[in-house]
């Protein structure tokens, strides 16, 4: 069955993914396209939505993209930057300035089917620097914006349309929930103007994907690595249904980077799911630790883990006599986009599903990826439809490289690169932060993301007491204004550290055991306080930083809210839980301090490496 589908052009940030998820919720397939994709990549769509952009301006080299899309005879709707591009392309004018940020009211001045069923004044969300000041001859203004609750014109051309050309633009972001009826507006475009039939349902996805898998695998068999995470588990169940458990060889590798007791729990769960027929297990922790020995640089560690996975499964495949099988992976849609998929971005982090050897196998048609079209929330929906237990479907995501990206390693050399620039800028923020707070740059780095690019930069530690909102405000000021900083953590140990010492530390079993212990304490605390399912993830990170000579490791907690894992905000843990964690974690032998990560993504990524 072919579906009617919408192309969403990704002008950066996470807007395009949000738009795509909103379209998919209407049971219409949406696919992401890059701005410089060739025009052929836009064939077969019933409509196009141009996303906004976090950094682009409708001026200069940023507005170079495949403009041949405007020659296509299908409807196009633009949001924010996309709206400005449409206005400009058809003879309108865009200027720098006229910034609006936050809630606004949209006052509809001409009735239009884009706003069918909506009121004359609608709450919308604005976030723009440039503004449309004139529209071309084919266009009409559908509405203007005002400050919330007022009626004076703040901005003309908040929504524009040309029904003759079938081109439309919204200055506001219809895809965010702060635009109260944004989903209705998107539905009016997708189902109404583009005439898409809502055929993309989970039931049909299951049927179509099973047929696709059977087609690709023929009468062969498939080999799948199962980590126990949601994605590989759902993939296993789907493949098992499509091929039968006897044609699905599962391998769970204990890479030594798993959580405490995780491997046994995974094996039990897979057996309970009826997938025990060809379930294999190997403890390869020695291989992984050997490959990681002495490595400290995050990308080198990720590569070593990815390569070792491949080596171990090649060895095991030979041992199990399944080397001819196709390789299956639980790769999901964002994974294919975050690494290298986005032409505008360099590699933020190498995804272990996309290391070069795997890429070669993909190119040779030897890899089956039944979830590659789905977002996480859709994988979870699929899991529930396939009968997985609620807690298996809703467990926190756990990265493929496991604790390997949460256990920072160091040569012991202090990394003070750029401190001469950081320290004066930090002093300025500190002066405005209030007397009770001290800010310290830490002499090591972690991975983050700024303007879609990898940022390997220093964290700042805030010490002292203040209320949560104030801490977030100070943290935000630090990572937004101080160059070379991509994270802020709050020292839960109290006073600012007098001495800081980075210690030489590599990936050892002892350090991993300590991290496992700390992680188990944190996970147990989240469950006991009934907030495990309220948050997206809570990595516990260990850094070989000695504070005041108390121990060797600094423990950092990273509880976050997120929708798709592509952006995130810090989650406020209850005070009672923080108190318990402080007591339990600081009591662990080898732990010198405890801190809480206050960083949004961007500029910090969820994982520290
Ligand atoms: P970051 O750290 O990039 O993480 O903000 C976004 C989400 O992806 C998970 N993550 C990974 N998952 N393999 C995975 O399967 C990986 O290499 C990987 N790196 C990060 C991370 O836990 C978060 O949910």
Q: Could you write a compact summary of the structure shown?
A:
The chain is of the alpha/beta class.
Count of individual domains: 3
Rough outline = globular
CATH class of the largest domain: Alpha Beta
Largest sheet strand order = 2-1-3-4-9-8-7-5-6
Instruction: Tell me the β content.
Output: 15-25%
Written overview of the protein:
The protein is 31% helix and 23% strand. The chain has 609 residues and is of the alpha/beta class. It folds into three domains: 189 residues, Class I glutamine amidotransferase (GATase) domain (Rossmann fold, 3-Layer(aba) Sandwich); 202 residues, 3-Layer(aba) Sandwich (Rossmann fold); 179 residues, GMP Synthetase, Chain A, domain 3. It has a nine-stranded mixed beta sheet, with helices on both faces. Helix 1 links the parallel strand 1 and strand 2. It is globular, with a radius of gyration of 26 Å. 46% of the residues are buried. The site of xanthosine-5'-monophosphate has 13 residues, from loops.
Strand and helix map with partners:
Elements: E1 5-9, H1 15-24, E2 29-33, E3 47-50, E4 76-79, H2 81-89, E5 93-108, E6 121-134, E7 140-146, E8 155-162, E9 167-170, H3 182-193, H4 202-217, E10 222-225, H5 230-243, E11 248-254, H6 262-272, E12 279-283, H7 285-292, H8 298-320, E13 326-328, H9 333-338, H10 356-363, E14 367-368, H11 376-385, H12 390-393, H13 419-432, E15 438-441, E16 446-450, E17 453-463, H14 468-481, E18 485-491, E19 500-502, H15 509-528, E20 540-543, E21 545-547, E22 553-557, E23 560-561, E24 569-570, H16 575-586, E25 591-597
Parallel strand pairs: 1-2, 1-3, 3-4, 4-9, 10-11, 10-13, 11-12, 13-14, 17-18, 22-25
Antiparallel strand pairs: 5-6, 5-7, 7-8, 8-9, 15-17, 16-17, 18-25, 19-21, 20-22, 23-24
Helix pairs in contact: 4-5, 5-11, 7-8, 13-14, 15-16
The structure holds xanthosine-5'-monophosphate (XMP).
């Amino acid at each position: 069955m072919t579906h009617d589908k919408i192309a969403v052009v990704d002008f950066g940030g996470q807007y395009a993914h949000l738009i795509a998820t909103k379209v998919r919720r209407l049971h219409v397939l949406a696919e992401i396209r890059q701005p410089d994709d060739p025009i052929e990549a836009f064939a077969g769509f019933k409509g196009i939505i141009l996303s906004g952009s976090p950094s682009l301006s409708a001026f200069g080299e940023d507005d170079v993209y495949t403009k041949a899309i405007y020659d296509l005879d299908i409807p196009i709707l633009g949001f924010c930057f996309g709206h400005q591009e449409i206005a400009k392309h058809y003879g309108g004018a865009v200027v720098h300035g006229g910034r609006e940020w936050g809630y606004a009211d949209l006052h509809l001045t001409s009735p239009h089917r884009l706003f069918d069923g909506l009121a004359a004044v609608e709450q919308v969300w604005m976030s723009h620097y440039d503004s449309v000041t004139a529209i071309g001859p084919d266009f009409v203004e559908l509405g203007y914006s005002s400050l919330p609750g007022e009626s004076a014109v703040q901005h003309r051309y908040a929504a524009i349309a040309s029904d003759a050309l079938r081109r439309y633009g919204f200055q506001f972001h219809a895809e965010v929930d702060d635009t109260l009826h944004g989903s209705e507006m998107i539905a009016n475009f997708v189902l109404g103007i583009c005439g898409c039939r809502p055929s993309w349902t989970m039931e049909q996805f299951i049927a179509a994907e099973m047929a696709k898998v059977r087609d690709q695998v023929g009468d062969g068999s498939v080999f799948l690595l199962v980590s126990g995470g949601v994605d590989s588990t759902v993939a296993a169940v789907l493949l098992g249904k499509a091929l039968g458990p006897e044609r699905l060889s599962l391998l769970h590798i204990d890479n030594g980077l798993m959580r405490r007791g995780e491997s046994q729990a995974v094996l039990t769960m897979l057996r309970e799911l009826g997938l025990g027929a060809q379930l294999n297990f190997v403890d390869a922790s020695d291989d992984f630790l050997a490959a990681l020995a002495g490595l400290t640089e995050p990308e080198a560690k990720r590569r070593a883990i990815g390569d070792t996975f491949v080596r171990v499964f090649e060895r095991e495949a030979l041992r199990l006599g399944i080397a001819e099988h196709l390789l299956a992976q639980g790769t999901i849609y964002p994974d294919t986009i975050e690494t290298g998929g986005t032409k505008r971005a360099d590699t933020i982090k190498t995804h272990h599903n996309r290391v070069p050897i795997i890429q070669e196998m993909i190119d040779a048609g030897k890899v089956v990826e039944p979830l590659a079209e789905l977002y996480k929330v859709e994988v979870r929906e699929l899991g529930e439809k396939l009968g997985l237990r609620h807690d298996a479907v809703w467990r926190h995501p756990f990265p493929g490289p496991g604790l390997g990206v949460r256990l920072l390693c160091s040569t012991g050399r202090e990394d003070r690169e750029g401190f001469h620039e950081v320290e004066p800028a930090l002093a300025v923020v500190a002066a405005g932060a209030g007397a009770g707070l001290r800010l310290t740059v830490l002499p090591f780095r972690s991975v983050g993301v700024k303007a879609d690019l990898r940022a390997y930069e220093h964290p700042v530690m805030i010490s002292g007491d203040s209320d949560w909102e104030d801490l977030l405000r100070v943290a935000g000021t630090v990572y937004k204004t101080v160059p070379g900083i991509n994270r802020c953590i709050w020292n839960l140990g109290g006073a600012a550290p007098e001495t800081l010492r980075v210690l030489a530390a590599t990936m050892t079993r002892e350090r991993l055991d300590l991290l496992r212990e700390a992680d188990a304490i944190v996970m147990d605390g989240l469950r006991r306080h009934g907030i495990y399912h309220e948050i997206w993830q809570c990595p516990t990170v260990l850094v070989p930083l000695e504070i005041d000579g108390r121990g060797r490791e600094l423990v950092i907690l990273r509880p976050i809210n997120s929708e798709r894992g592509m952006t995130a905000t810090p989650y406020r843990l209850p005070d009672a839980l923080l108190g318990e964690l402080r007591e339990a974690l600081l009591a662990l032998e080898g732990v010198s301090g405890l801190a809480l990560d206050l960083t949004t993504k961007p500029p910090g990524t969820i994982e520290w490496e």
